[in-house]
Specification:
It is a single chain. With 465 residues, this protein is an alpha/beta fold. It is 38% helix and 22% strand. It has 15 helices and 17 strands. The strands form four sheets. The protein has a nine-stranded mixed β-sheet with strand order 13-14-12-11-10-9-8-5-15, sandwiched between helices. Helix 11 links the parallel strand 11 and strand 12.
Length: 465
């Protein structure tokens, strides 16, 4: 593929864009021409004998790669491609859009940018704006969050690409030592956080499946957090229990004892045949029992579902949505399946499920309206089903601060445990943040071996503030 352009572009980024959105253009020669015409910018492309062009007012002061973005949209026009999100391929559309509001653009001006430069459709533009209005009430740059990764699961779901290892696998033998190492890490970073007077606003224990922890190990971890970390500024404490086959009433009572106020119970789908094929155990009777325990004990509840799981027809998805009506949850997260390189599905001969997006989205909107929920955070992933998105819905006042802060990359994060990512977010200018990352090893053995060394790097990182 030969690419010529009269302005600076990223060939790697452009080739990836074409691979995902215009696969028939892969390997085709591409000519790009951009020019400034008074107060406007015009970009035209020619690829595979097809031509496309785009014109928009010059706002390069606020979008330094405006011509490059317009070139991508012009390629979509050349091929007659229309996607719900247009050429907006980024993971965090709200973060990008929020920058325009910070530059005092009006809501109508922002909508026009998303429509005119990115070719996004009205429903997606409105989704971004609605989410931003909720986020702005909750974002808090003055605090930090803590993420704790438990990289173990009862079984490895075929769609999963997260840091997770089956507890009965070879790496399962390191489980007790992993917990001991995690407690030592909590002790080390808890002392450092107190010394630096770090205010933690939220804690999120994820994985993997954190409820794979035995009752004994669960209590040890939560006890260590209370003993070594200053929790006086904490506004929410989430435990992503997730799978009903790893939760007991006793574990839930231990969580409640140590201040956990939010848990997840994630069916993903209510089609048991689908879950069985995905190597995810599911027992509806036990699921309902655990649900009742969660409501009885008094947690804020989140449920996750995934659209487009292999083999599922439209009727299967609509059935799952109907089943959701039976449950009273404060949060609902709707994921579009994204097949990632780290998942078993990616390595398999995987054929994506065909989903009638408009039909499904209409039903979702019916349900969240019935449950008095609104969208409060969202993100997107490459290779998502039908160019969809992941949306978190919440009843008013029950939004997850952690989810919002992580997607917007507004707060710094202290990451502990397997695969956890530590982030230091520092404003570089009024509108641009500098973000530095440190990643804990996913593999429990390497995590155990390298914990002390990694934490010295975290201390060095946060000593900059």
């Amino acid at each position: 593929m030969l690419i010529s352009s009269n302005f600076k572009i990223s060939e790697a980024s452009l080739k990836e864009f074409i691979r995902i959105l215009v696969p028939e253009g892969v390997g085709k020669d591409l000519n790009i021409f951009g020019e400034n015409c008074g107060d406007k910018i015009r970009v035209s492309v020619e690829i595979d004998g097809k031509k496309g062009s785009l014109e928009y007012k010059n706002i390069e002061k606020y979008i330094e790669d405006q011509k490059f973005i317009m070139a991508k949209s012009a390629i979509l026009k050349a091929y007659g491609k229309e996607y719900p999100w247009g050429g907006l391929i980024g993971v965090r559309p709200t973060k990008m859009t929020r920058r325009f509001f910070m530059n005092d653009f009006s809501e109508e001006e922002v909508k026009d940018i998303l429509r005119g430069i990115y070719l996004a459709k009205e429903d997606k533009i409105n989704l971004v704006i609605d989410v931003l209005k909720i986020e702005e009430k909750l974002l808090n740059r003055e605090a930090m969050n803590m993420y704790i990764g438990i990289p173990y699961c009862p079984s490895k779901c075929r769609y999963c690409s997260f840091a997770s290892y089956e507890v009965n696998s070879k790496l399962g033998k390191f489980f007790p030592e992993f917990v001991d190492t995690l407690i030592e890490e909590i002790k080390i970073l808890g002392a450092f956080s107190k010394e630096k007077k770090i205010k933690y606003e939220s804690i999120y224990i994820g994985g993997g499946t954190p409820s794979t922890l035995s009752e004994y190990h669960l209590e040890k971890v939560l006890e260590a957090l209370h003993k070594y970390v200053d929790l006086s500024n904490l506004k929410e404490f989430t435990f992503e229990a997730g799978r009903e086959d790893s939760i007991t009433k006793e574990k839930l009572l231990i969580m409640k004892k140590y201040g956990v106020d939010r848990v997840s119970l994630n069916p993903q789908t209510f089609n048991e045949n689908t879950l069985e094929k995905l190597n995810r155990k599911f027992n509806r009777e036990n699921f309902d029992k655990i649900y009742n325990y969660i409501k009885e004990i008094g947690f804020i509840l989140n449920m996750d579902i995934i659209l487009g799981l292999p083999g599922e027809e439209l009727s299967d998805i609509l059935n799952t949505l109907e089943e959701l009506r039976k449950y009273d949850m404060e949060n609902l997260t709707v994921h579009s399946l994204a097949v990632k390189k780290g998942s078993i599905l990616y390595r398999d001969d995987f054929e994506a499920s065909k989903v009638e997006r408009e039909t499904v989205e209409f039903r979702i909107q019916e349900i969240v309206k019935e449950k008095n929920m609104h969208p409060y955070y969202m993100y997107r992933q490459k290779n998502s089903l039908d160019w969809g998105e992941n949306v978190g819905y919440s009843k008013p006042g029950f939004e997850s601060r952690f989810n919002i802060e992580m997607i917007e990359e507004n707060q710094s994060t202290m990451g502990l445990g397997g695969g956890a990512i530590t982030k230091l977010v520092v404003p570089e200018t009024e509108l641009i943040d500098q973000i530095e990352r440190l990643v804990n090893p996913k593999d429990p053995f390497h995590y155990i071996q390298e914990m002390v060394e990694r934490n010295e790097k975290k201390k060095e990182l946060f000593s900059k503030i």
